[in-house]
Specification:
Elements (H helix, E strand, L loop, with lengths): L5 H20 L6 H6 L6 E10 L5 E12 H14 L15 E8 L3 E2 L4 H7 L6 E6 L2 E5 L2 H6 L3 H11 L13 E5 L1 E6 L6 E4 L5
Antiparallel strand pairs: 1-2, 1-3, 3-8, 4-7, 5-6, 5-7, 8-9
Helix pairs in contact: 1-3
Length: 204
Amino acid sequence: MEQYSLADGTDLVRAARDSIELYLRNPNSDASLAKAQVKRHKKRAGVFVTIMHYPTGELRGCIGSIDPREIGEAVVDAAISAAFKDHRFVSVSLGELDHMVVEVSVLSEPVLLKGAMSTRLRSIKIGRDGLLVKYGHRIGLLLPQVPIEEKWTKERFMEEACKKAGLNGSHWKQPNISIYAFTAQVFREESPGGNVIEVSNKIE
């Protein structure tokens, strides 16, 4: 996975926040102003944008895609979707801008885990790997930071990824399920609109 600098990460997080604010002030905006901020970022990658309440860290929205796109445009589109199209939450309001932090995750290409289930399980590293589960038309994805925040074991991580795909938690043990691992560089505001840091991976 190509590494992005802190300056790059700061650009992406700022563009994500600005796109949310622009949309709040003008829902008919085509997000072109926010995309112009990051037009130099032409490299392609999967991207997720996560919004969290500050200071509790409670999830407020998270949407993105594993499919590679031009990273600047992908961040803006994911930010608007996370703020206004995540059906688990009501849309973000203008008054919340000063009470939320924005996080951008830049994803590597997923790698299919092979071998017996015990082998697949051993290959996963909590803090390094995210999981993508595919079974027929069902797809579930969890970012690498999620099992750290939730204090999950590898087994629980697998179970929750299956549930995200709408499957039974134990479905990861089925031989015909496809499980992929991926890594991510994660950039996050320390406070609403504040300094951006790269979140360190915690390898178990």
